[in-house]
Amino acid sequence: MAEPALLPAAQMERLAPVSLATPCPRIPRAHIARRCARRRMDLGSSPGPSLGQTNQLPQKSPPRARPAPGAHSRLSPAEGLSMDGFWTEVERIQQRDELREDTGDGGEGRPPEEGETETQWLQDTGLLDLLGGLGLDSHHRGLLSTLTRTQVAAVRRRLDIYTRSARRRHKAPVRDVREIFGAFNSGEISSENGDSGIQWSQLSSRTPESPLAEPEGPQAQTGREEAFHMDAAYSEQATLLLQRGRQPPGGACAWSEGSLPKFRVPKGRLGLTRIGDLSSQDMRKIPALALIELTALCDVLGLDLKRSKAGKQKATETGLFGVPLEALLEADRRACPSTQVPLLLQALLSCLEKRGMDAEGLLRVPGSQARVKGLEQKLERDFYTGLFSWDEVHHNDASDLLKRFIRELPAPLLTTEYLPAFAVVPTIPDPRQRLQALHLLVLVLPEPNRNTLKALLEFLRKVVAREQSNKMTLWNVSTVMAPNLFLHRGQPPKLPQGREKQLAAGAAEVVQMLVHYQDLLWMVSSFLVAQVRKLNDSSSRRPQLCDGGLKTWLRRIHADKDKAEGGREATPKVAKIQVAWLIKDTLEVPLTPSTKVAHVLRQFTRHLRSSLQAQEGSEDKESLLPRSRLRKSADFFLYEVGGNISEHRLDPDAYLLDLYRANPHGEWVIKQSPT
């Protein structure tokens, strides 16, 4: 699957050939500041409002106030002062009359009823049909056979909770969990990094470079890069740490931007996989697997995976602001069929990158309310007709439009269902486990939300990179953007009274992590790719009609696996690689333990250049086509197609022999990048 398509700046400009008039002077805001100060003084004499009161704002914390007891705050005193950016942004939202009563339009989730959470969870993981029926189809068998022990425990727990709630509500009898799993013994899933048949219980025997190496102190964590392993399930890593009696070192990381832990992802023999490397068919399997793993991780850590149920959306299906992402992308694709990120968001980010990156206080300094309102009306009217120009749009007005676009989405960009789960992430003491949970949450997001979030985070990283000019540090950017991502439509989420400061600090910490670790967050964990392979392999098996139950079926597939591993055919000495165009014959490459994907691409490039040189004197017009399509070797990628994967763009550092062993029935094809 290709990366989300972003339109080039030139194409965005063609949508807007006419310029606006010169921006009018900014409206003085001194009276606004005085009014906000008076309001804070009034609130100071009364108890802090509950976040459940949607017509009031959370009370701004005093500059040097300490976090409430029990709150996992990692802010230094200097950063506590910088939380003013969060509260200023909240007050600005309020003074522009954007704080609304809760109308049940889908922006604010409602607490689920008894058993409703488990039902929705089973539906999202593709296991809802386990609640009834007498048999298991091939899909459920295949999915269950990919799960680790901790993931199986998570599924069991949700089924048990649903069963108990159904009995209390006098529902029809449901299947017993033992009927589904029997003596299910998972834990033989193959590692994506080439360790075939790895036992999760044997992870403790790994080398000191393993993900469960002895935790080190704060100085060691902040002084060098730490390994962030993706080959073993995160919940299994956490379980083994607990079994060894090694409690996560809470507070080992001070949450100043200069001391964020530095993590690196070690490359296994199969390389790394990014979200855009997998086909859409395989990526559709990732969210369900990631949700099961996220639930298992939270169960191991003793956390309640917070989740809300979205109400019915009462949003317009046309326009630019306040339109669901799906409807907006559908309209955008009429102008540009390959669009994956809303065109309006692309245009706003392009405008800010061209004229505002060096402006001091970018994103923090507000624009003119009158100008912003006028620009919004003109955009609604002229954006798709090509009669709107960004040439003279003030960068502060553009940043206000950007935040308004995010805030006015009918459902939060981080989704109504999982916004509470994002807010729980900062309460995890261990930095590595905190990042693991955030990584899984990103993978659970719907594709339109994930692509839109990726474009936004890439822009925010560019803003931070120009910190010397715009004075916007990573923490400053995080505190300004957090209210727009977490206080949907200006409405604080319903939390117990007295947790306003924890909400503000936690939201800013999550945004900080999203920006800082975005490269890691857009990878697909190797153990999830291994589960996709096994799921595809299970779904391709012929149904076993004489199977008496899941227990028997699982015994058979594991026996077949052991037999296949014992009688594996001899590995071929030469790999035959197809080329999607240009070369009719296959490319033959020696298949040795040291042959990498990068070696294949270099050999292909040399072969291609020699073929073009041989055609120099040819008068055949078709021979000129390859030269026009040949740009540079970086445009070519080796794809794994078929077998136990639909299509997988391979890491240049992956080893061919290990790829063959992971997918002996797949094919390798060289393609040119579509982007």
Descriptive report:
The chain has 675 residues and is mostly helical. It has helices spanning 9-14, 30-44, 77-82, 84-95, 116-124, 138-145, 149-168, 177-181, 218-223, 234-243, 280-283, 286-301, 325-335, 343-355, 369-382, 395-407, 419-424, 431-444, 447-465, 467-470, 474-486, 500-516, 518-521, 526-539, 550-566, 597-614, 624-629, 656-662; strands at residues 225-227, 262-264, 273-274, 523-524, 574-579, 587-590, 636-642, 645-649, 667-672. It folds into 2 domains: 50-205 and 220-315 and 410-568, no CATH class; 569-672, Phosphatidylinositol 3-kinase Catalytic Subunit, Chain A, domain 1 (Ubiquitin-like (UB roll), Roll). Helix 15 crosses helix 16 (395-407). The chain starts with 8 loop residues before the first helix and ends with a strand. The protein has a 5-stranded mixed beta sheet with strand order 6-5-9-7-8. A two-stranded parallel sheet has the order 1-2. It has a two-stranded antiparallel sheet with strand order 3-4. The protein has 28 helices and 9 strands. Helix 10 (234-243) links the parallel strand 1 (225-227) and strand 2. Residues 16-73, 76-81, 99-107, 195-222, 249-258 and 542-548 have low confidence and may be disordered.
Short structural summary:
The chain has helices at residues 9-14, 30-44, 77-82, 84-95, 116-124, 138-145, 149-168, 177-181, 218-223, 234-243, 280-283, 286-301, 325-335, 343-355, 369-382, 395-407, 419-424, 431-444, 447-465, 467-470, 474-486, 500-516, 518-521, 526-539, 550-566, 597-614, 624-629, 656-662; strands spanning 225-227, 262-264, 273-274, 523-524, 574-579, 587-590, 636-642, 645-649, 667-672.
